[in-house]
Amino acid sequence: MTAPEATSTRPYLIRALYEWCTDNGFTPHIAVRVDRNVQVPREFVRDGEIVLNVSYDATSGLQMGNDFISFTARFGGKPREIMVPVEQVMAIYARETGQGMAFPAPEPEAEADNDVSPGQASDEPVPQDAAAEVPAEPASDERVVQLVSIHSEGDDEEPPRTPPPSGTRPSLKLVK
């Protein structure tokens, strides 16, 4: 099989990172670019994107195929059928650590074809059990990027935090 005929690695990497998250007790989330081919509750879409909790506890009947990810999840207490084409998945990561992998964002459809507009989303709160708003920047190149924790392996302890003296404003300290 030559390179142009090879199947995409994206569904395999998504399944592998899902398994890694669940094996380590983390909550896997996927960031999805929403277009007319994505079946999600449109009222939870923000700026053409949605983040979905795909953990065992948040889904029912999860199927992660080579072409689609499908499951049932509760949004606002109502069960909803979710169907996401794998090519629309922009990232999969562990909610607790942020570790995971980002993929090149799919090209957005033309305005006339896109049935989700940035201002379409409602102001309802997003339930923690199914979805959460996380703005993501579209990838500017075609490479797969691995998300890593900002903490090193042996850096399990955080330095003690001291509150600022009263009457002063907090400030950021640049650490190189």
From TrEMBL:
SUPFAM superfamilies: SspB-like (SSF101738). GO terms for biological process: positive regulation of protein catabolic process; proteolysis. Signal peptide: none annotated. It comes from the Bacteria. Residues 100-176 are annotated as: Disordered. Transmembrane segments: none annotated. One of its GO terms (molecular function) is peptidase activity. GO terms for cellular component: cytosol; ribosome. The keyword Hydrolase applies. Keywords: Hydrolase, Protease. InterPro entries: SspB (IPR007481), SspB-like_sf (IPR036760). This is ClpXP protease specificity-enhancing factor.
